[in-house]
Amino acid sequence: MKKIKIETHLEVFDSLLELPKDIQDLMNKAQQAREKAYAPYSRFMVGAALQLETGEIVMGSNQENAAFPSGLCAERVAVFHAGANYPKKTIKHMALTVRSLNHTVNTPTPPCGACRQALAEYEVNQKKPLAIYFMGETGPVVKAASVKELLPLVFDSSYL
Question: Model's pTM, two decimal places?
Answer without folding.
Answer: 0.95
